[in-house]
Amino acid sequence: MSKFQNYLKTFDITSTLTEEDIDKTLALLQIYGPAVRRTASRIGEMEEECYEGRRQSISDFINLAIDYDRDTDRKRIADRLAEMGHSMQLLSVMEDALVLVKDTPPNGGTYFNILQARYFDVYCTSNEEAYLNLGISSSTYYRHIKPAIRAYAANLWCVVIPDLIIREHLQQNGSVTTQVEVS
């Protein structure tokens, strides 16, 4: 390899990934569909419960719960909403990383389509379904799936998650600065 190629390799975020990172990413990708289905069913159950028990929509219930925080039933439902919120936040982080895959050279669009069809389509249950839905050959699919997962892992662990950590850190420091200025 030339010096220039070695220099360019230092900017390749996929080179910093470990097998453990890839394994964790694969585990997250495999739980995406079930997590979406479970969260959707919980929201549906809660909507039913709010309507049957109080004859109001979830949004009306939440608005009312903000005003009256003493009811134990409201606390239980608030805990369930918080749990669903955490699931939705994880799904959002995963989707942010998927969007970044589109810009991965040289085959970002292909990687995006493969990952979206296989892992982010909640009804897709196999690799065969994914490549049939995409209308591509199995050899093309299998040639690109590993680099696609690697590109996704790099965007997740090296871009999206560090960005969240930095944002959270800045928000904490910003709130500390605001408190100091007030006193």
Descriptors:
183 residues, mainly alpha
Description:
81% of the residues lie in helices and 0% in strands. It is an all-alpha fold and 183 residues long. The protein has one domain. Helix 2 crosses helix 7 (138-182), helix 4 runs antiparallel to helix 5 (108-120) and helix 5 (108-120) packs across helix 7 (138-182). The chain starts with a helix and ends with a helix.
Tally of separate helices: 7
Shape: flat
Order of helices and strands: HHHHHHH
What structural class is derived from the secondary structure elements?
mainly alpha
Mind describing the biggest β-sheet? none
Report mean pLDDT, rounded to a whole number.
85
How many whole angstroms does the radius of gyration measure?
22 Å
Question: Termini, distance in Å?
Answer: 59 Å
Low-confidence stretches: 177-183
Estimate what percentage of residues fall within beta strands.
under 5%
How many domain modules? 1
Helical fraction equals: over 70%
Number of strands: 0
Any chance you could write out the topology, listing elements then pairs?
Blueprint: H1 3-9, H2 19-54, H3 58-67, H4 72-101, H5 108-120, H6 127-134, H7 138-182
Helix pairs in contact: 2-4, 2-7, 4-5, 4-7, 5-6, 5-7
Can you give me a brief rundown of this structure?
By secondary structure, the chain is mainly alpha-helical. The C terminus is likely disordered.
